[in-house]
Structures are given as C-alpha cells and as structure tokens.
C-alpha cells in the first residue's frame, strides 16, 4: 500500500467522526430552519430539505465505511454489501445533485417574467418532482446492483469487465460529472439574469417586499450551494474519469489521491450551512431564533421548577401555622 493511501486511511480514523458530526448537526439544523413557515412557503425549501436528507443518509453509510477501512473491515466484501454498497454510494449523491438541479430550475421559473414559467414554481410541483426524481435516480443506478458480484473464493467484491459495464460507467460519468454541473451552471446563470431584469423593472408593491426578499435570498443560497458543490465534487470526478478510461493511471499514488478526494467531497454536505448563515439574513434570523427559543425553554423550565419549589415551601409553612393556631385555640 502506498504512503499516501496509508496516510489517508490513518487520518480517516479521526477525520470521519468529525465529518459525521458536522454533517448531522448542520443538516438537522438546516431542516429545522427550512421548515419555518416563512421559508416553507417557497418550493425551493423542499428541494433543500431533500438535499439535507440525502446528505444525512449518504454520510451514515460512507463515514463508517471510510473509518473501518483502516482495519480491513469492509462491508462491500460481503454478499449483500457487494450489491448495496456501490448502489447506495452512487445513488444518494446523484439524488442530492438532482435536488440542486430541480431547485435551480425552480428559481429560474420563480424569477422569470413569464407567467407560465412562474406558475411551475409551486409546492405541489416540488413534491411530485422530488418523488419522481428519487425514483429516476434509483432506476438510473440500478445496474450497479448487477455489475458487481461477490467472489466467494477470493472473498472480494469484483466488478464485471465487459462492454455493457464500460458503457454504463461512461454514461454514469457523463451524467454526474458533466451534465449535472452544466445543468446547475445554466439554470444558475439564467436565474441571475432574471433577477437582474426584475431589479431594472418597477419596484414591487410594498406588501410583496418580504416575499420578494425571501425568494431572492433563497436564490442566493442556491447559487452558493451550486458553487460549493462544483468545488468539492469535481476533483474526485476527474480522478474517477482517469481511473476508468486510463488504466495506466491506476497507480498507488492516484488511488491514494482518489481516497483523499472522497474525504474532500464530503465537505460538500456541511460547508453550505455556514455559508447560508453568513450570506442570507432571513436564514440567519431563523437560525438564531431557534437558538433563542431553546435558551428560552431552558429558562422557563428552571423558572417553573424554582416557583414550584417556593410554593411547596410556602404552602408547607402556612399549614404548619394553621395547625399551631388550631392547637392553641383548643387549649
């Protein structure tokens, strides 16, 4: 095993638990914030919530796998794991990327001057798009279940080498690392163009200012999410492309670099939360409101406990005094 691969495996023992905690906390907070009534009224929030759910599921599978690799404990080298592990590790990132594409298209429709396009930006369309998109991702990645097979003699999960496997792998790379980023970029640029056109038009009615502000900041959050996704996802895509079509690139150093880029790609699932908080005042206000609410609940609990304790002591003293007066009267 190469020095780089050894170092990646060694650091994974410490890095993966940290990544796991960060992804869990940030995405759970993200879901809680986006479920707020103000943000939930926008279809884009539903796509962001679906992205967070996919990120959580993906991390729950990948982080343990990367951590246990150091000890040669690999779930993929089992009969069931050989089928499910590759499928889940490819379908969940694809589903998350598709949610960003759908969110980009929703922002494009929402910011368009066309009434017909704006009518496509609604919660009902978002819900159906999420369901059908998830099924489509599972269908596209279903061949992963059949191109991998567990070799009971070698106790290893092996991939079939034939023309169909090559065609599927090539299509997979084109879909995830070429078409997905291009789609995000195109809809992102069109959304920015639509927003600029709206800014050059007559100012909106005062009653719609809050709604316009929320929609505009959701569009900004989406553009940030797309930019971050490309930064973290493309390096691994380039290495994966090289390993697939250039057999000479499958050197120990490149394999170690590929494992390092897997860890780099995982940052895509928690970094946007901090950028949302910095860039969007609406998101930031909702986040701090959750923290204040939690702090307020704790204070209320403490206050109620103290009040109950005081009342108990106070009532007890009153009973004792009453009983003493009763005794003196009897005497």
From TrEMBL:
CC terms in the record's Gene Ontology section: plasma membrane
Pfam family, one: 7tm_1
Transmembrane segments: 12-34, 46-67, 87-105, 125-147, 167-193, 222-242
InterPro entries for the chain: GPCR_Rhodpsn (IPR000276), GPCR_Rhodpsn_7TM (IPR017452)
Keyword terms, alphabetized: G-protein coupled receptor, Membrane, Receptor, Transducer, Transmembrane, Transmembrane helix
Keyword Methyltransferase attributed: no
Superkingdom classification of source: Eukaryota
UniProt-recorded Gene Ontology molecular function terms: G protein-coupled receptor activity
Subcellular location: Membrane
Name of the protein described by the UniProt record: G-protein coupled receptors family 1 profile domain-containing protein
Organism: Adineta steineri
Taxonomic path: Eukaryota, Metazoa, Spiralia, Gnathifera, Rotifera
């Amino acid at each position: 095993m190469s020095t780089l691969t050894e170092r990646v495996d060694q650091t994974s023992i410490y890095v993966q638990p940290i990544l796991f905690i960060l992804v869990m906390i940030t995405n759970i907070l993200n879901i809680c914030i986006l479920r707020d009534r103000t943000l939930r009224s926008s279809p884009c929030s539903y796509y962001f919530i679906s992205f967070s759910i996919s990120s959580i599921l993906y991390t729950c599978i990948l982080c343990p796998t990367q951590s246990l690799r150091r000890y040669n404990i690999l779930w993929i080298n089992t009969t069931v794991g050989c089928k499910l592990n590759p499928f889940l590790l490819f379908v969940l990132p694809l589903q998350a990327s598709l949610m960003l594409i759908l969110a980009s298209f929703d922002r494009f429709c929402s910011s368009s001057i066309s009434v017909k396009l704006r009518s496509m930006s609604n919660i009902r369309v978002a819900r159906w798009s999420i369901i059908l998109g998830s099924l489509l991702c599972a269908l596209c990645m279903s061949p992963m279940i059949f191109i991998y097979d567990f070799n009971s003699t070698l106790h290893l999960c092996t991939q079939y080498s034939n023309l169909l496997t090559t065609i599927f792998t090539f299509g997979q790379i084109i879909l995830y690392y070429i078409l997905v980023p291009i789609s995000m970029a195109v809809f992102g640029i069109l959304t920015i163009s639509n927003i600029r056109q709206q800014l050059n038009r007559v100012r909106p009615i005062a009653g719609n200012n809050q709604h316009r502000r929320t929609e505009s900041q959701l569009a900004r959050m989406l553009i940030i999410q797309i930019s971050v996704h490309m930064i973290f996802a493309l390096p691994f895509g380039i290495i994966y492309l090289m390993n697939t079509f250039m057999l000479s690139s499958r050197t120990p150093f490149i394999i170690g670099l590929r494992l390092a880029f897997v860890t780099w790609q995982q940052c895509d699932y928690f970094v946007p939360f901090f950028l949302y908080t910095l860039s969007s005042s609406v998101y930031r206000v909702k986040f701090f409101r959750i923290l204040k609410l939690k702090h307020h609940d704790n204070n209320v609990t403490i206050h109620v406990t103290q009040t109950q304790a005081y009342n108990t002591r106070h009532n007890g003293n009153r009973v004792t005094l009453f009983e003493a007066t009763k005794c003196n009267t009897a005497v």
